[in-house]
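In this supplementary section we document a worked example of the pipeline. Step one takes a protein sequence of length 191 as its only input; no multiple sequence alignment statistics are reported here. Step two produces a three-dimensional model, which step three serialises into structure tokens for compact storage. The input and output of this example are shown verbatim.
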Amino acid sequence: ARIDPMQELRVRDAMRPAPPVLRQALAFARVVDACARGPWDALPVVSADGAFRGIVTSQAVEDAARGETDGLLAQDVLVEVPVVHASDRLERALGSLLRDTTSGVAVVDGTVEQVVGWLTHRDVLRAYSERLGTGRRTVRPTAIGGRRPQSPPATPAATAPRPSPLTEPRGAHAPRPPRATPPSRVCPPAS
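The serialised model returned by step three reads:
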């Protein structure tokens, strides 16, 4: 009998580092700034003791910005979402991802449910693919059927030297991947 990899994989095998964590008492202007700075569509929100309370989505922030924002805090634009635990089976986490409409779910651990990671559909697929494959984490491009694609013949444009990233116009190169943020990075409440 063959074991389904989704039954043996755990969330900790697939999760990525958590995005920056916001305190629920953070002023709305700082929430907007935090959402605008990163590549994330949602940021986890925690209580003063670090317990997960929900997420702030960029859509919820945009909606709130259309109204009165004086005195508004992160907890006022909070969206309650399911969480998964690092020790949960990946199959259970996939169910949470499918039921939720956000870009990912928070991964918590401990009795206080502190945010320790983030899980997206892509993370689940990557972990599943790695388990089914040879165990290598590097994915090499292949055509359907497992054969490497043929390189097109060299053209003068293809053999020309590529510009250095230092000389390329801003925005001409591929975007950088998001930097991993340690779970301890928390935006403090506004003074």
